[in-house]
Design brief:
alpha+beta, 3-stranded antiparallel β-sheet
Amino acid sequence: MALGTTFVDHGTSITAFIPELWADEILDALEKKLVLAKLVNTDFSEMVKSKGDLIRIPTITNLSANPKTARAAVTVQAPTESVQTITVDKHYEVSFLVEDLAEIQTAINLRSIYTKRAGYAIAHQVDTHLRQLAESSFDIIDAQTVAGNTSFLSEADILLAKTLMDENFAPPEDRHIVVAPQQYNKLLEITRFTQADALGAGYENEIRRGLLGTLHGFKVWMSQQMAATGTTTTDTCNTLVFQRDAMALVMQLAPRTQANYIPEYLGYLVTVDIVYGYNELRDDWGFVIQNDAVSYSVV
């Protein structure tokens, strides 16, 4: 005997009685790995912790040794120095308001989740400014002109950048390479890099911070910030090679979080903000290696 179609079922009659629940585990937003802000010079931040919006940094040139002739005066030198300035004029904020109704009826801590997202947005902005500064200020190495290179990042590219930095008297300490995911995979083909990649237990904390290995005195980091926008070999994919003092980041106000209850809106307003400035210090201590992006396809 057919029962017909008049049932108390999930799709019709009892829909109003079924609560909508969010899963306890919230899928985090996909984050780009941010590395540049922790690799550049930040020593000048203390100078503006109280007041001020401009830092002047003199660049000291080397003096020359001259032969001393008997009964003749010494050679007096008067070098002409240059000054680099860092203007602290960047004030960025990320704000959101969580109304009481959303807070009451949601099974998760919305303020905590979105505060983390706001902090990431601030960090992303700082990292973007530093990347843009490097790409516009550093000299460019066209990887395709390096002997033996097939337009992808190679050991020859890195050795050329190292040679130029050595010739420009860049300190051997605190040298870094920041690569895109595509170019990091090309580095894995270099035997010396994969051998040096076995950093050992002493580097566990560095690995968590994003350090991938060392090569010819450079610490290697990977950042999705450097990734090419396209997926073909005609897209340019930059790699940054620099010494710490090539750029400076001045944070007058480190990222701070403020929360206030707004009665007019019956909710908490949360703001994360930062005050900072940045500039190049030695553009000859940093280089941009321009490669073609590695093409790939997804099926």
